[in-house]
């Protein structure tokens, strides 16, 4: 049985269950199977029995907001409305983030990656650096990257940060660049003074930093139009995908990156066991992965 056939069978069997007459407290097994298949097909995000309650909570929230009587009624609305499908995918994404999260990564970026890129770029007469923050959430990561580029890259270099996410709600917050005081607690004072403007209730990212970042909607399940990316941050995202989806995402990242480039993934994530072309790289500050176009495919091993 193909994945498409299995999906249609699940959908047909679910839609015959009750036509919206069952009030929801928890999802039935058939409802859970239908929703998790739908979400996986459209995003690559995987739900298992271990996080079933998370999905149930998100769906209950949508039922309340839409005043719908049952999970079945909501499922039918998701099938009929691309806007509601987007809202469902938005609701199941995890938006936990903060400025300068995982200092070791940003130390490696500042003190190793940027100098290496500057040296390589100058050797071929280029003066630009492009970074992609994939799964950027509400913007803390790409703005951190922009601040570090502003501080550590030569002034003559043109630096751009492409920031993408599946959540339209998160992207709206990110584009505004405004954060309550509690959200900037991890920002060093020198960066807070240099790159933020204090307001009555929080902090606004300065215009020169905001101009360095471009926010786009992008679903990692699909191929990106980005090419020649010098550094790619995709941290704490792969853990929500199964192995098949992870491999597909990593292959698409390879295609989007320049011949000599760098990849950061989450500290609890690894390419160990995947047949990828990326090389493991350990710096004095932390670990990451590197793309070299001369390298042949090999298995990444944890050091």
UniProtKB/TrEMBL annotation:
<dbReference type="InterPro" id="IPR022642">
    <property type="entry name" value="CheR_C"/>
</dbReference>
<dbReference type="GO" id="GO:0032259">
    <property type="term" value="P:methylation"/>
</dbReference>
<protein>
    <recommendedName>
        <fullName>protein-glutamate O-methyltransferase</fullName>
        <ecNumber>2.1.1.80</ecNumber>
    </recommendedName>
</protein>
<dbReference type="Pfam" id="PF03705">
    <property type="entry name" value="CheR_N"/>
</dbReference>
<dbReference type="InterPro" id="IPR036804">
    <property type="entry name" value="CheR_N_sf"/>
</dbReference>
<keyword id="KW-0489">Methyltransferase</keyword>
<dbReference type="InterPro" id="IPR022641">
    <property type="entry name" value="CheR_N"/>
</dbReference>
<feature type="domain" description="CheR-type methyltransferase">
    <location>
        <begin position="26"/>
        <end position="294"/>
    </location>
</feature>
<keyword id="KW-0949">S-adenosyl-L-methionine</keyword>
<dbReference type="GO" id="GO:0008983">
    <property type="term" value="F:protein-glutamate O-methyltransferase activity"/>
</dbReference>
<dbReference type="InterPro" id="IPR050903">
    <property type="entry name" value="Bact_Chemotaxis_MeTrfase"/>
</dbReference>
<keyword id="KW-0808">Transferase</keyword>
<dbReference type="InterPro" id="IPR029063">
    <property type="entry name" value="SAM-dependent_MTases_sf"/>
</dbReference>
<dbReference type="InterPro" id="IPR000780">
    <property type="entry name" value="CheR_MeTrfase"/>
</dbReference>
<dbReference type="Pfam" id="PF01739">
    <property type="entry name" value="CheR"/>
</dbReference>
<dbReference type="InterPro" id="IPR026024">
    <property type="entry name" value="Chemotaxis_MeTrfase_CheR"/>
</dbReference>
């Amino acid at each position: 049985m193909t994945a498409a056939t299995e999906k249609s069978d699940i959908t047909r069997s679910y839609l015959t269950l009750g036509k919206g007459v069952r009030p929801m407290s928890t999802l039935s097994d058939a409802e859970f199977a239908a929703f998790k298949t739908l979400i996986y097909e459209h995003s690559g995000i995987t739900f298992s029995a271990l996080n079933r309650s998370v999905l149930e909570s998100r769906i209950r929230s949508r039922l309340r907001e839409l005043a719908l009587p049952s999970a079945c009624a909501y499922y039918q609305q998701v099938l009929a409305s691309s806007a509601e499908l987007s809202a469902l995918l938005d609701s199941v994404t995890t938006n936990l983030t903060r400025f300068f999260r995982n200092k070791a990564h940003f130390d490696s970026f500042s003190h190793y990656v940027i100098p290496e890129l500057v040296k390589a770029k100058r050797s071929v007469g280029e003066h630009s650096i492009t970074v992609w923050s994939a799964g950027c959430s509400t913007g803390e990561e790409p703005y951190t990257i922009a601040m570090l580029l502003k501080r550590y890259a030569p002034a003559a270099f043109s630096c751009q940060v492409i920031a993408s996410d599946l959540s339209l709600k998160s992207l709206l917050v990110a584009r505004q660049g405004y954060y309550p005081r509690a959200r900037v607690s991890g920002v060093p004072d020198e960066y807070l003074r240099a790159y933020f403007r204090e307001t009555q209730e929080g902090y606004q990212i300065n215009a020169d930093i905001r101009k360095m970042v471009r926010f786009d909607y992008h679903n990692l399940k699909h191929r990106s139009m980005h090419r020649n990316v010098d550094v790619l941050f995709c941290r704490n995202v792969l853990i929500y995908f199964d192995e098949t989806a992870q491999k597909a995402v990593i292959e698409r990242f390879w295609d989007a990156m320049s011949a000599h480039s760098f990849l950061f993934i989450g500290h609890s994530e690894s390419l160990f066991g995947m047949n990828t072309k990326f090389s493991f790289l350990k710096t004095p500050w932390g670990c990451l992965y590197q793309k070299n176009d001369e390298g042949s495919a090999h298995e990444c091993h944890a050091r």
